[in-house]
Amino acid sequence: MNDAPSVFIVDDDEQVRSALTFLMESVGLQAESFSSAHDYLEQFNASKPGCLILDVRMPGLSGLDLQARLSAETIHPPIIIITGHGDVPMAVRAVTAGAVDFIEKPFNNQSMLDNVHRAIELDAKQRGESSRLQDIEKRYNELTPREKEVLQCVIEGKRNKIIAAEMNISQSTVEAHRSKVMDKMLADSLSDLMRMALLLKLIS
Amino acid sequence: MNDAPSVFIVDDDEQVRSALTFLMESVGLQAESFSSAHDYLEQFNASKPGCLILDVRMPGLSGLDLQARLSAETIHPPIIIITGHGDVPMAVRAVTAGAVDFIEKPFNNQSMLDNVHRAIELDAKQRGESSRLQDIEKRYNELTPREKEVLQCVIEGKRNKIIAAEMNISQSTVEAHRSKVMDKMLADSLSDLMRMALLLKLIS
DNA sequence: ACATAAATTATCATATATTCCAATTTTCCT
DNA sequence: AGGAAAATTGGAATATATGATAATTTATGT
User: Fold this and answer.
1) Fewest CB within a 10 Å sphere: which of A31, A38, B2, B146?
2) Strand A6-10 relative to strand A50-55: parallel, antiparallel, unpaired?
């Protein structure tokens, strides 16, 4: 799970792949290259840290297509788009869609390395946040429907008495649910629970 | 305060200004144009809603310079950059720095209007969130130092007894501070207070 | 039909928080 | 020095939450 970060390189041009691989390895970065977006997707593993250098113009799935696919994933490596014949609208689209960079070939080696390092740092940060979030989501999904209802009321600041009235159940029941929620979510205070609810976007 | 949104146009080219003004007014949008970034800054009023169409290449302050200045403001209209001789790196920089669009001249009138409408909607949304935040900030700043300390502990989920021990004061005092905090912040429950604390970024 | 999880309720004891009240001491500004 | 705001404390009554324990009723799926 917690491997060293890789620089994933997706380009149909063998020259570019080997040049980039050489560049990355020259500074001790692990590189993995693919000749098509499809090849990359096949081995894609959300838990592998790193960043992705992606050519726009490729046979089959284009770089922007791949970018769109990856955006649907909850977590994916930051994307650096490279292109031989880029234009402004394409760059705007790529960056707006979440690419961290859009670089024209031929590129400067040093600035490429700078960008890669920045992207890898960003990935590490996102990954840390995301793994915490996934833990919380996992626990949340183990709540029963009723417990989720009570949780929703709790984070809205309602008192047990009110919740009981709204749900037409006794206060004891609410207390029971509430207590289970705290246990299952591993929350040790209300504010702790609220923080989790925020990450889960249960809050308006 | 709550005026109709304006389209602010900043371009040193009189032709462009009048063309854009005409375009905006043709769909019922209010337009205000300026021949330099400096002129715009002079009349800049954070409370005026709308969006900003900004030329990059201008004598004096450039569009990107103005963008940087505005980014320092807590709230500013969304920026649509327009340019005659744009290149990819410039577009990437502008979008990365927060511009909502980067459009080359000559542009398509309809797509420009679409972008303007989208930007104005975004501005309205940001403005709504921001005014709520300002209310909360105002109330927060009326708290005494001691009350702020207690608030910090409360949102960390500490019980009054613990807070009293940590601050070396009696539990009664903590209760007094806490009660005042709830009053002053107009919070009617702990979760309410937590939500505010989040917006104030008092939470890790 | 049986087993299991979920939902429901209750009681008792304790711990905490909230809300009144009133009072003293500190600090800071004019 | 005088006054205002802030910080401090205590008491007493009330409301709420928590925690442990136990028991009943309802689904749910095999």
Assistant:
1) B2
2) parallel
DSSP-based three-state secondary structure for A193: helix
Q: Verify if strand D has an atom below 7 Å from the CB of A177.
A: no
Contact B151, B179 (CB under 8 A): no
Q: Do A102 and B87 touch (CB under 8 A)?
A: no
Taking each helix axis from N to C end, the angle separating A109-141 and A190-199, rounded to the nearest 10 degrees, works out to 120
The domains of chain A are located at 6-129, 142-199
CATH topology of domain B6-128: Rossmann fold (3.40.50)
pLDDT score for A203 = 81
The rounded distance, in Å, linking the Cα atoms of B34 and B32 is 7
| Residue B1: per-residue pLDDT | 54
What H or E segment, with its residue span, contains residue A164? helix A160-167
Give the position of tokens 């709308």.
B50
Which residues 6+ apart lie within 8 Å of A39 measured at CB? A10
Residue A160: how many CB atoms within 10 A of its CB?
Answer: 18
Strand spans (E) along chain A: 6-10, 30-34, 50-55, 79-83, 101-104
CB A101 within 8 A of CB A116: no
**pTM for the complete prediction?**
0.83
The answer as to CATH 1.10.10.10 being correct for domain B142-199 is yes
Grade residue B5 by pLDDT with cuts at 50, 70 and 90. Answer: very high
Chain B residue numbers touching A156 (CB-CB < 8 A): 191
